[in-house]
Structure formats: structure tokens, C-alpha cells
């Protein structure tokens, strides 16, 4: 409880809020003990990528938890539009001041859009992993693959257990 009060007072002092100007675009979020946000309405892979499935399009990025562990992102390598991605296979890389990490696709499909803003502003992955920092949009070839991904509660627990093990 004291930790939550400290986080709230710190957020207020820094003029941070979960109801930012774009909050109407996002589902509600919860904050885990490690202060990484996990959004409702998204699915998560155990490799820390997220998927937002809307109609025939799935938007993919890396989670707040992942970007927090990576540190400052300085370079992003992404696939070309019209290329295909396969579930649990590498589709790009994120280079941070700490390390370079492969990005695995949580689902299979055709890349229909790439976030070109990341070429000039890779830090968007740190500052806005679920909004401006998305990576690719995919037309899923097997929508049933989404069912094997974790929901927000499962992913929060997964992250907490993973952090406790390290």
C-alpha cells in the first residue's frame, strides 16, 4: 500500500497520469509490482511481444515490461511490408544501450504495415510501447494462434514470476 501511495504521489509530482490525452484510444491498464503497464484487450507472448487484434488486422509491438528491461532503445530493425511472419520466429531486432534482442512474432501472417516512425525515433518504444511504439501490423493467416497467447492477468503473473527468478 505504501508503495502504491508513493507511486501515485510521484506520478502526481511529475504530472503523469493514466488518463493522458490519448487515453480514450486505449483500454484501461493495470500496473504490476514492477511498474510495467499491462493493457486490457491485448494478448501477450512469453517472449514479451503484444498483439492487438481488431477485425482482420493484428498490431504487434513489445511490452512495457520488455522495453523496461532493454533500457534506452537506439535502433530498430523491422521487416518489409508484404513479407510474411511466422509464429515464434524472428521478424526483427531491437538494439538498446544494453543489448540487441530479437523480436519474435506472436502470430503468423502477412505484414501489411510497418511503423516507419521507429527508424528516426526508436525511443518511441520506450516512451509509448502500446501507442506510438507499435512495430508492425499483420493480416493473421491463422487467427486461432491468438488463443494460445496470455491475457493481461496471466502476463502480469508471468512477468512477476520471471522477475522473482532473476
Automatic annotation (TrEMBL):
Textual note on the cofactor: Binds 1 lipoyl cofactor covalently.
Keyword Ubl conjugation recorded: no
Compartmental location: Mitochondrion
Domain Lipoyl-binding: 57-139
GO biological process, one term: protein lipoylation
Pfam families: GCV_H (PF01597)
Matches recorded under SUPFAM superfamilies: Single hybrid motif (SSF51230)
Cofactor: (R)-lipoate
Origin: domain of life: Eukaryota
GO CC entries: glycine cleavage complex; mitochondrion
Key words of the record: Lipoyl, Mitochondrion, Transit peptide
Positions of modified residues (N6-lipoyllysine): 98
Cross-referenced Gene3D superfamilies: 2.40.50.100
Family per similarity comment: Belongs to the GcvH family.
NCBIfam families (alphabetical): gcvH, PRK01202.1
Subunit structure: The glycine cleavage system is composed of four proteins: P, T, L and H.
Annotated PANTHER family: GLYCINE CLEAVAGE SYSTEM H PROTEIN
Function: The glycine decarboxylase (GDC) or glycine cleavage system catalyzes the degradation of glycine. The H protein shuttles the methylamine group of glycine from the P protein to the T protein.
HAMAP family referenced in this protein's UniProt entry, alphabetically: GcvH (MF_00272)
The protein, known as: Glycine cleavage system H protein
Amino acid at each position: 500500500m505504501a508503495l502504491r501511495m508513493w507511486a501515485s504521489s510521484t506520478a502526481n509530482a511529475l504530472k503523469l497520469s493514466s488518463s493522458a490525452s490519448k487515453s480514450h484510444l486505449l483500454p484501461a491498464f493495470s500496473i504490476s509490482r514492477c511498474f510495467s503497464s499491462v493493457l486490457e484487450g491485448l494478448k501477450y507472448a512469453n517472449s514479451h511481444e503484444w498483439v492487438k487484434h481488431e477485425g482482420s488486422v493484428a498490431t504487434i509491438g513489445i511490452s512495457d515490461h520488455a522495453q523496461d528491461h532493454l533500457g534506452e532503445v537506439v535502433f530498430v530493425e523491422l521487416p518489409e511490408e508484404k513479407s510474411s511472419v511466422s509464429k515464434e520466429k524472428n521478424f526483427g531486432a531491437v538494439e538498446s544501450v544494453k543489448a540487441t534482442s530479437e523480436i519474435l512474432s506472436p502470430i503468423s501472417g502477412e505484414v501489411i504495415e510497418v511503423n516507419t516512425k521507429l527508424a528516426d525515433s526508436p525511443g518511441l518504444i520506450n516512451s509509448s510501447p502500446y501507442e506510438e511504439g507499435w512495430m508492425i501490423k499483420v493480416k493473421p493467416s491463422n487467427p486461432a494462434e491468438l488463443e494460445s497467447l496470455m491475457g493481461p492477468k496471466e502476463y502480469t503473473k508471468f512477468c512477476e514470476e520471471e522477475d522473482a527468478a532473476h
